[in-house]
Design goal:
Elements lengths: L23 E7 L10 E4 L6 E3 L3 E2 L11 E3 L11 E4 L4 E9 L2 E4 L12 E4 L6 E5 L9 E8 L1 E3 L8 H7 L2 E3 L3 E3 L1
Length: about 180
């Protein structure tokens, strides 16, 4: 397990332009096969303690129905074949068999219906926001990255920061586009 440079940028804009002295960072390991971008909200897989992109997503275009194994999510790249998909209430929808773009096919018809604009997530623990990546990983091998676990961040640079992620991180939005957690 090592650190690998995914990309270099000229004068990258800091996620913590306001009070960088209050930024709290630790090392975290992104699981092999799971990429992440700088500024992305991350979750921790309960069984291994390794991290991956937070797997909460909204259903878009095609709802999951009990008469079909197919549904569409806003970001299919968050999921992997074999993930057990659950709805916001924690009820199992089904196990992912294939992913093509944002289209997900389950191994069987959906166990419960999930409407368009309702949330679904992979139930491995990564659905809960735990930290924000200050480095990226291409997903090749378990990769150590810098994890932001507190500070004053530019909200516009954070990927996947929705209302539930803010709550899970224990943060709030402040005037001037700042996210404090």
């Amino acid at each position: 397990m090592g650190t690998k440079i995914v990309g270099t940028y000229q004068n990258p804009r800091s996620l913590a332009e306001v009070r960088p002295d209050l930024l709290v960072e630790i090392n975290a390991t992104v699981k092999d096969g799971h990429s992440c971008l700088r500024g992305e909200v991350m979750g921790v897989i309960t069984s291994s303690g390794l991290s991956r992109r937070r797997t909460r997503s909204l259903v878009k275009t095609t709802a999951f129905a009990t008469t079909s194994p197919n549904g569409t999510v806003e970001d299919g790249t968050k999921y992997r074949v074999g993930d057990v998909l659950k709805n916001a209430a924690g009820t199992t929808v089904g196990t992912i068999q294939t992913i093509v773009g944002n289209n997900i096919t389950l191994a069987a018809n959906a166990a419960v219906a999930v409407a368009i604009d309702a949330a679904v997530y992979a139930s491995d623990g990564s659905e809960k926001a735990s930290w924000i990546a200050d480095d990226g990983s291409d997903g090749d091998g378990d990769t150590t990255v810098t994890a932001i676990v507190g500070g004053f961040l530019l909200e516009s640079l954070i990927i996947g920061l929705d209302a539930t992620a803010k709550t899970e991180l224990g943060g709030i939005s402040l005037p001037g586009g700042i996210f404090k957690y």
